Amino acid sequence: MADPPGCCSTCATCLLCPYSCRWITAKKEKRKGLRTTKYDCSWFLFLFCVFLFTLVWLYFAIIILNDFHNFNEFIFRQRKLWLDWSLVLLIATAVLISYSSVLLVLALCLQLCGQPLKLHWVHKVLLILTALVVAAAFTGLGIKWAEEWKSARISLQATGPFLHIGIVGGMTLLAWPLASFIYRTRSTGLKVFVLLVFCAAMIALYLAPLGITSPCIMEENQLPPKPVLVGHRGAPMLAPENTLMSLHKAVECDVQVFETDVMVSADGVPFLMHDEELTRTTNVQAVFPERAALNSTAFNWTDLQQLDAGSWFLERRPFPTVQSLSPGDRKEAAEQRIPSLEQVLEAAKQSNLSIMFDLRPENHSDYQSFVNVTLGVILQSGIPLHQVLWLPDGFREDVKQQAPGVQHVYGRKRLENEEPGLHINLPYQDMSSEEIRQYRQDNISVNLYVVNQPWLFSVLWCSGVSSVTTNACQVLKEMKHPIWLLPSSTYFMIWIVVDCVSFLIIIWAFVLMKKCSHRRRPAESETDVLLTKINSLMQE
Predict the structure, then answer these.
(1) Which residue in 126, 294, 409, 509 has a CA-CA distance of 20 to 30 Å to 99?
(2) Is the pLDDT of residue 415 over 60?
């Protein structure tokens, strides 16, 4: 389907060798009369689809990094194995995208050189495996982590304008090998089909900004105040979670609310602990090996005080930031113990820090006594009650009667005709930008969790969220402005300029390739005549 080669023999040979695994020169390929068949074209189309598939997965992999610590904790609870699986994800994704990218670039260069696209069977098998691996990854994501589809949709509000520019640029570059293919292909029907598909894709891309929305497309003077930072179990990237050190590090990060989880020991002492078991964040397996699998509430306070709640942080390094801790911080982390709620309330009172907590486990038979004991500690601590944000739903009315000054935070959206002044705490995937704006107008405080990546923080900032719960307080603290903010008029101008430049480059590519094809044909005709004459003379 393609005419003879149009570039130097050495370059063509260098391209053919890795793509077709044919370790012979391009001249020999020409003498063998190999051409790109419809079968070869179908494999090129499959290669292009696999590349796009892996590219989309790469985008998803980057987006879900915001929530990957939750996945690491989930795996530990299931397998008792701690590993930063985000590194495995990124390395595997990088290998897949690099492989398909290199093959695609080779194929496009071969097309520009007029060489046959004879993909080797090894590459075909590897491409099929790549497609299956990525498909399995998407399937697993949909089954076990379906909320990440909402995360991807939110991410488009941060990346949409830039993805549009990038895709338009990529399709514009694709016009060069496409024009070469059009002018070398003899089949009129195929030419018309390819051109129609390309034109339809470009028109859709040129008009795509009509459907792109982002809360960060606004005037500078319309930007809401920066959201308040809520430390998720303190500052878990800088200190062991749910410890006094983590609270103090959170204060250094300008965190205004310390979010934590409270349990009650067997002898009635409220203490800080997230997991129902102690194995992840303490050395309970070494101190009480026969009781390690018991619920945290089965231990009395004396037993809990014997546990090391900091060394795991240095050994397992749940976040990359652990490697950069100073010697002093490492020493302090290794000395951490499980703190009681009384100790935490005293530290919060001294730092003028609010505390928001959940009381776990809610399905415990003694839950009402847990509520009463916890309330008693709060009232005895002397902390101003407006600094206490109460999350548990169980026995909430009793809490309102015993401690009327406590602020109540609800893990749901507001009900119809509900009074203003509510405090709502939800996953960031459960609130749209429009809902956040409406709640803000109705004087409803919205806290979203868990927000670690600057792009996500920027989108929520532009949307007008009141506060965010974060693991990365040290990162978000330094953000004085959203990552990007564009007035609508500026974005409109960028859109028009990008589309116009792309259109002109595509026209230039087709015109230039047409001239090159016209120049090549007379030379190829003279060569063919000369070879025919030489062949006739040799036969005579």
Answers:
(1) 509
(2) yes
Q: Are residues 384 and 267 in the same domain?
A: yes
Q: With bands split at pLDDT 50, 70 and 90, how would you rate the model's confidence at 516?
A: confident
Residue of 466, 413, 414, 478 whose CA lies nearest to 440:
466
For residues 370 and 364, is the Cβ–Cβ distance under 8 A? yes
Measured CA to CA, the distance from residue 376 to residue 358 in angstroms comes to: 16
Q: Residue 366: what pLDDT?
A: 93
Q: Are residues 499 and 423 in the same domain?
A: no
Domain end (from 116, 145, 174): 145
Calpha distance 445→421 (Å, rounded): 7
The distance between the two most distant Cα atoms of the chain, rounded to a whole number of Å, is: 116
Amino acid letter for position 263: M
User: Could you tell me whether strands 257-264 and 270-272 are parallel, antiparallel, or unpaired per DSSP bridges?
Assistant: antiparallel
How many whole angstroms separate alpha carbon 173 and alpha carbon 176? 6
In this predicted structure, the answer to whether residue 531 has a pLDDT above a threshold of 50 is no
- DSSP code of 230? E
Domain containing residue 433: CATH number: 3.20.20.190
Q: Are residues 188 and 257 in the same domain?
A: no
pTM summary value: 0.89
What residues contact residue 502 under an 8 Å CB cut-off, 6+ apart? 168, 169, 171, 172, 202, 206
DSSP classification of residue 83: -
Out of 123-127, 189-193, 313-317, 392-396, pick the least confident: 189-193
Give mean pLDDT, residues 431-456: 95
Q: Are residues 465 and 346 in the same domain?
A: yes
**Residues 354-365: b if buried by 16+ CB within 10 A, e if exposed:** bbbbbbbeeebe
CA distance 385 to 193: 71
Q: What integer pLDDT is reported at residue 4 of this predicted model?
A: 41
**17 Cβ contact list (under 8 Å, min separation 6):** 23
List the one residue out of 61, 58, 71, 67 whose CA is nearest residue 97: 58
Give the pLDDT score at 31: 45
Would you mind telling me the total number of residues written for the chain in this entry? 540
Asked whether the predicted pLDDT for residue 417 surpasses 90, the reply is no
Residues 368 and 496 in one domain: no
Q: What is the pLDDT of residue 5?
A: 43
Cα 277 to Cα 294: distance, rounded to the nearest angstrom: 6
- Neighbouring CB atoms inside 10 A of 539's CB total 6
Does residue 128 have a pLDDT over 80?
yes
Is the same domain home to 66 and 180?
Answer: no
Residue 348 sits in which domain range? 228-275+315-321+337-477
